[in-house]
Amino acid sequence: MGRATDLNRLLFEEYVKLVRDPYAGKGTPPVPVFKNPSAKEMREAGGMMGAIRFTADSKTKTLYVWDHSLIHHHATKGIGYSYYEYGADYVLSGTAICNAGGRYSMSGSDTLKPNLKASEVFKKFKWVEKWIDIKYYLHTMLK
Fold first, then answer.
1. Which of 7, 15, 65, 76 has the fewest CB atoms nearer than 10 Å to its CB?
2. What's the pTM value of the predicted model, to 2 decimals?
3. What pLDDT tens digit does each residue of the chain (143 aa) get?
4. Which residue ranges make up each domain of the chain?
């Protein structure tokens, strides 16, 4: 990232944190984690692959997104969540891919418990639909 881009982020974006993958090689740059991202930030997080990871916090109505190459555990730890919060019922973590229309759709999650009801999870996280279509995935994977 150039100096102008870094300065722009400092001045205009609510939150950006660079998180380093502890297992990446020495020359690997840190991954930006965006908070309640703009459309431009969603595209940046998805990169050329159009794949992101995300964590949504229903207590604070905050969505964090980053490139799919950084696993959830490292990203959430980097932004201040403990290991135990990662699987809490107020946190929804998953992956999403960008479709041809430029909209992201949830494509996976390893924190959803199979005994949950899709309608209850969707009700709690409906606000995430502003950025990511979660409804189809939840209703497909849960009761």
1. 7
2. 0.84
3. 444 455 444 444 455 688 888 888 888 888 899 999 999 999 999 988 999 999 999 999 999 999 999 988 888 888 888 766 766 789 999 999 999 889 999 999 988 887 889 999 999 999 999 999 999 999 999 87
4. 3-141
